[in-house]
Design a protein that fits this description.
The protein is mostly helical and about 240 residues long. The protein has one domain.
Amino acid sequence: MSELELVALAAAALASATMSGIVGFGGGVILLGVLLMFLDPLEAIPVHGAIQIFSNSARGIRLRSHIDRRIVAHHLVLLVPGSVLGLLVASSVPVDLGRVAIGVFVLVTTWRPAWITPRLKQPLSARSFLGVGALQGFVNVPLGATGPLVSPFFKVSTTTRHAFVGTFAATQTAGHLAKIGLFGLQGFDFVDHGSVVLVGVASVIVGTMIGTSLLGRVSEERFSAIFTTTLTLISLRLIVSSIL
């Protein structure tokens, strides 16, 4: 990546981590969309995972006293098997089709989330997160970002906003660890993308500190318009550039 592209990545990573620190999820989708402007999906997804590990783990550490450890423990059981199946799918998808699939997924989660996310009213049992972990692992590898898809399960099952953000961050960290581990076993060279990862990591750490410090003081509605517009523009660009 050029120096200008690295600057754009740094800005996107900072903004995405700040967003996730405030509302608990969503920033990773923005960051993935930006990475896909410069990298192929099978490069962008593991690089995105390496960066997001630091974003989510920093958020989880800052909110560790609020984490629901029973949910996390059950979530981990089937996470890796789900990720292995997801990698088999991702490896067989053509590059342009992968970009289109991610673009469509982001558009749907932005404008019609009810089509893919459950409408939950009652908290789930900790055991139910066995299935949530398997689902997250499977989707996380080919699509790269699962926040909009699985966050409703966590939101309805945690008692406070801090518990939701902390617990979700812990499980997302595990998901990204599983993902980059599998890509590493497949031969992906993270050293070749070291500058991208380092710039992204530094930016998300700062963004996480900003976002979690604002948690509870900034309304989600204030970010809604910017968030939706950004995701829409990135998604449309991915789709159009892949088709034309």
